[in-house]
Amino acid sequence: MDRRFAETEGKRAHDPLYSPRSAARATATGFPVGEHGEVFAGPLIVGAGPAGLAVAACLTMLGVPYVLLERYGCIASLWRHRTYRRLCLHLPKRFCELPLMPFPSSYPEYPTREQFLDYLDDYINMFGIRPFFRQAVISAEFDGELWCVRTKEVVTAAMDGEEAVLSSATREYRSKWLVVATGENAEPAVPEIEGIDVFKGQVMHSSDYRCGEPFHGKKVLVVGCGNSGMEVSLDLSNHNVHTSMVVRDTVHVLPREIMGISTFGLSVWLMMYLSIQNVDRLLLFLTRLVLGDTARLGIPRPSIGPMELKKVSGKTPVLDVGTIGKIKSGDIKVFPGIQSFHEHGVEFIDGRSEYFDVVILATGYKSNVPYWLKEKEFFSDKNGFPRKPNEWKGKNGLYAAGFSRRGLLGVSMDATKIADDIIQCWNDTDYERYNSK
Ligand SMILES: Cc1cc2nc3c(=O)[nH]c(=O)nc-3n(C[C@H](O)[C@H](O)[C@H](O)COP(=O)(O)OP(=O)(O)OC[C@H]3O[C@@H](n4cnc5c(N)ncnc54)[C@H](O)[C@@H]3O)c2cc1C
Question: Does the keyword NADP apply (predicted)?
C-alpha cells in the first residue's frame, strides 16, 4: 500500500477540501445504506475492534467508503469491557501500533490498557471513523453477486435497576465486499468440567475479572495458565488473595524481557539469522537463566520449542511479568488438572482436594464466525478461523482481518493487505447497477 498511499497523499495535499475526516464522513452520509437493503458502494466491515478500525483507516486513506458494524455501543469492546485493569500490552508498542498512526512518543514501552484505549479513540478521530453501533451481525451470506448482511439492533436502558429492551430492529446491508473483523476472542470459551454445577462458590470467566480487591481474604482458583491466567493470578496475589492456579497442559513461559531486551523483539531479530530450532534453543537457554526450570514449579514445557510451536500450532508462548516469582515464593500454588468439582472445592488429578471460594476460568476465547457467517470454504465452521493459517482473502470479496494469531501486529498486516486488495477493483464497481435492479 505504501506507494499508492504516497501518491494519494500527494494529490490530496493539493486538495484544500480533503481531510481523512471528511472522507470518512462521506462514508456515513454519502451513500444509501441499510434500512431497505440497498447496495452499499464500499465494503462492509464487521467488528469495530483494532482490526476493523485498521481496515477502516486504510480504506479512508485510499478514498474508499465503508460501513463499519459493531454489536456494542463502543469501539474495542474487548479492551474496554472484558479486560482486567492491570493489563498492559504484552508486546513492545512498536509491534502493536495500527497502520498509519504510531503511538505517542510519551507512551511507555508497554502501554497500559487505558493508554491503548486513548490511542484507539485518537485513531478514530484522526481518520473520522464512525462505526454503526449496536448492530450485531446475525447472518451474512453471498447470494451469487453480493454479500447480504443482517443485523439486529437492540437498544436497552437501565430501568429500576434492570436492563430493559427499549427497541429492537433488524436491518440488511448489501455489498460486494465483506470484511470479517469480529476477532479471535469474540466469545469466552467455557469448558465442561465434571461437577462444576454442584460447586456452591462463585464461578466466573476471566473476561469478567477486573481486579483482585473484591476477593480479598478469599481462596481463589484460576483455571488456565495462558497470559490471562498468569496475569489474573499475579493480580490476585498482589491483592493478598490466597491464589492457586491450574496448569493442565505443557506451556512455554518466557520472560517478557531478557537483559532489558524484549523477548519477542529478540526472537524476531534472531529469526532473521538463525534457524527456528536454533532460535528456540537460545531462547530456552536464556529463559532458564532468568526463570529457572519451570517444570520444577509444576509448569512443564512442550517437547518442541516456543517459536516452532507457534509456527505449527499457533500456540503463543506466555510472557511472564512476575507470576513465576510469586510461584517460587509460594504466594501462588500450582495444581495439575481438575478431576472434578465438589460442593466446596475441587479434586485434582493427583488426588489432592482443596476448598475454594471462587473459581476463575481463564480458559480462553473463541471466534463467533460460525454462528453468523454462512460460508464454509474459507472459514472453518469448527473454530471460526480461516482454514489455512495466515489467510486473509477468501472468494467473492470475503476477507478476514485479525485471525492470523499474531496479535496486533497481524491485525495491521491484514488491514493493509485487505485495503490494498479492495482498491484494485474499487474504481471498476458500478453500484448503481445493483440498486437499479
Ligand atoms: C486479555 C487480552 C490481552 C491481550 N493483549 C494483547 C497484546 O498485548 N498485544 C496483542 O498484540 N494482542 C493482545 N491480545 C489479542 C487481542 O485480541 C488483539 O490484539 C486485538 O484485540 C484483536 O483485535 P480484533 O479487532 O481482531 O478483535 P477484537 O478486539 O476482539 O474486536 C472485535 C470486535 O468485533 C465485535 N463483534 C464481534 N462479533 C460481532 C458481531 N456478530 N457483530 C458485530 N460486531 C461484532 C466485538 O464487539 C469487538 O468490538 C489480547 C487479548 C486479550 C483477550
Answer: yes
